[in-house]
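Worked example 3 (structure in, sequence out).
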């Protein structure tokens, strides 16, 4: 569950394609989206995460929040806070009073980083535009991303509001039947975070057990 939890917010994009060529229409949409968000210094995202397994008739939803500053992030959901300062990831489990610290390589292809969701398609994926559709007067696009290397998910489906050039949702299709859906509820780009916001403060949590796995 914790592994599925981290896969967000991330791991905010795209595709089922059988050819080596990527879809130009999909690329144009994703490039436009990436360009928009690359100019934003900080953002706060409220989202709904749903884990679903149809075979076991299981569905569970939770509301979470992600603070992002360039390649740094803090995710709060289900009693767990995950901090990433650009190099180290701190996974703080409040009920267990424990924090796990691990080092993440810059180009690890880590899908748990919500700061990379707008550029996810650029490395390790083929992508294609599945369809465009309308709801009322608003036009949307659905883009598939398929990993080029073996992953524990088969594809990511991203829905984009073309009128506002915004991500609406993404769905990771797990190979073991577990699907993860992230729906964006609200995004605030008029915020500012210091770099210290993305580091777990051990001094403020003297009773927490620190498990350093670096």
């Amino acid at each position: 569950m914790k592994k599925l939890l981290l896969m967000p917010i991330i791991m905010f994009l795209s595709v089922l394609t059988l050819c080596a060529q990527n879809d130009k229409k999909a690329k144009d949409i994703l490039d436009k989206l990436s360009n928009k968000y690359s100019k934003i210094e900080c953002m706060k995202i409220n989202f709904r995460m749903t884990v679903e397994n149809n075979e076991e008739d299981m569905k569970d939803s939770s509301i979470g929040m992600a603070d992002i500053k360039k390649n740094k992030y803090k995710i709060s959901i289900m009693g767990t806070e995950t901090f990433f300062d650009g190099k180290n990831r701190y996974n703080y489990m409040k009920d267990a009073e424990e924090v796990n610290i691990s080092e993440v390589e810059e180009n690890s292809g880590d899908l748990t980083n919500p700061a990379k969701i707008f550029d996810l398609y650029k490395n390790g994926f083929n992508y294609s535009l599945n369809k465009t559709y309308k709801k009322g007067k608003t036009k949307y696009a659905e883009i598939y991303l398929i990993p080029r290397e073996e992953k524990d998910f088969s594809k990511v489906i991203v829905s984009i509001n073309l009128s506002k050039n915004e991500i609406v949702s993404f769905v990771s299709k797990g190979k073991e039947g577990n699907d993860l859906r992230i729906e964006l509820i609200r995004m605030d780009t008029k915020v500012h975070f210091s770099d210290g916001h993305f580091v777990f403060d051990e001094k403020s949590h003297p009773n927490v057990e620190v498990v350093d796995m670096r």
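Notes: Residues 2-21 have pLDDT under 50 and may be disordered. The longest strand covers residues 42-53.
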